[in-house]
Amino acid sequence: MVDVSVINPPSSASPEIKPQMGVHPKLRQLLIPPPIHVEDPEPPPSEWILLDPYGYLSDRTNATTAGCRRSRRSGRRILVTFWAATPPRVSCFTAHCPGLEPSAFGDIPKAGAENRPPSLKRVRTPPDLELYGNDAVLLRCRDRDMFFLANLCRAFIVDFKYDKNQFLLHLYSSRTGGWSTRLMNVEAPQDFNLFSLNKTIAIGGELSSVGWVDLRRGILIRDLLLDNHHSLRYIPLPPPLVPEPLRGYPMYVRNIIVLQGYIKYFEMHKNFRPCSDPECTVTVAVGWVAATKKMKASNVATESSWEEDCTIKFDEVPVDSPAYAEMLPDLQRGQDAELTLKRVHAGYPALSLHDGDVVYIMHMPDHGVNKASVVAVDMRSKTLKGAADFGGSGRPHLHSKWDLQTSRHYLVHV
Fold first, then answer.
1. Burial code of 202-214, b = ≥16 C-beta within 10 A, e = fewer?
2. What DSSP character marks residue 257?
3. What region holds the DUF1618 domain (predicted)?
4. How far is residue 414's CA from residue 412's CA, in Å, rounded to a whole number?
């Protein structure tokens, strides 16, 4: 866990690791240099950042660098460094193991949100447990000076068959330093069925609640402090903007966070209108429409009602700043009366943890080129709040999707 409250220029004199040709594709991904921004030293660092959850390998360091022992026997260390950038620019983190070749990393390092003092702590997992970002959630219990790490997975019976209402909960407690496993049953209607888990949320509250989210269907809620309770509550997501079934990766058009006592859900969809030609019988896409809905976090134990929050059409958002217009040259076309976000190639929305009305969206005008921009939209005032280059790291967008992380502390999986 690394505190990024102080950002200094790189202090390591070692040369940057360079990508190599003729190596395995996964290793080539690991060797791509990080897109490190040069920050203005005057303004204080942001209390929250937009973070690319997939890390980079680099031996560069700064004031945020923290380390821990990789192994008691070998004495090798893992060093993790954060490179914070003010939103809408995207921050990143790097990992480095002195004396260890990059090929020793089995996959790209990943990060998740956490709240702890500046440190890097290795949590050992049981041999039969693998942690994945979509299944593991970390919750800090401030009043108890401890944290939980909870992992949820299907309870397979035999030959990859499972009961749709049963899951295995693997729970780590920093107080005991050990793991426990229990079988959990879902309290849900007969037609309950989750497709896949896309995200986790730390709800908190008196019972230290956490949630695992299927952005196609709903949320599984677990109260970590109820030791004798062996069930998961199910909360369906709000009805979709359009009745058509969701196709493709859910986080490309949906997201969910916990903010200021509310669970906040975002969804966007292509906005279709009838063709203006009388002889035309099809509909045409005219930008995007998006909406947010919310639920009081304190209500997850008793009810599951969602409240309407904001709705917006992207073609109603003007791009009236020359600087932003220059940064987003692909928005103007033909006889458009004014420059708006009508033609934005939107994807991977992330709700702000500072202003609940702002959403950050990746703009990818050319999917054949690994380059993108990030736009910040105020849904309530229907204004463009900012725009920035994503970083142009050279990673395919499959591995460059980003997510919004809260506070200045993070859990890193290496």
1. bbbeebbbbbbbb
2. E
3. 212-360
4. 6
How many domains are contained in the chain? 1
Question: CB-based contacts of 77: which residues, under 8 Å, 6+ apart?
Answer: 67, 68, 69, 70, 97, 98
Q: What is the DSSP letter of 25?
A: H
What is the pTM for the complete model shown? 0.80
> DSSP secondary-structure letter at 248?
S
Length of the chain: 414
- Please identify which residue in the block is written with the tokens 């031996």: 59
Would you say residue 215 lies in a domain? yes
Beta partners for residue 181, in sequence order: 170
Q: Where are the alpha helices (DSSP H) in 165-292?
A: none
Q: What is the DSSP string of 345-390?
A: -EEEEEE-SS-TTEEEEEE-S-TTSS--EEEEEETTTTEEEEEEE-
Q: Which 8-state DSSP code applies to residue 44? A: P
Question: CA 10: distance to chain centroid?
Answer: 26
CA angle centred on 301, ends 295 and 305, rounded to 5°: 35
Please, are residues 36 and 8 in contact by the beta-carbon 8 Å criterion? no
Task: Give mean pLDDT in consecutive 10-residue pieces for the chain, a chain of 414 residues.
Answer: 33 42 57 64 63 82 80 73 85 82 57 51 83 84 87 81 86 93 89 87 91 95 88 93 85 93 94 75 80 93 86 92 85 72 88 90 75 90 91 48 48 48
Q: Which two tokens stand for residue 245?
A: 């079934």
Tokens 């993108």 locate to 372
Distance of CA 39 to the CA centre of its chain: 23
Domain of 175 in residue numbering reads as 134-237
Alpha-carbon distance 219 to 212, whole Å? 6
Residue 318 lies in a domain: no
Contact by Cβ (8 Å): 169, 184: yes
Query: Is 90 within the bounds of a domain?
Result: no
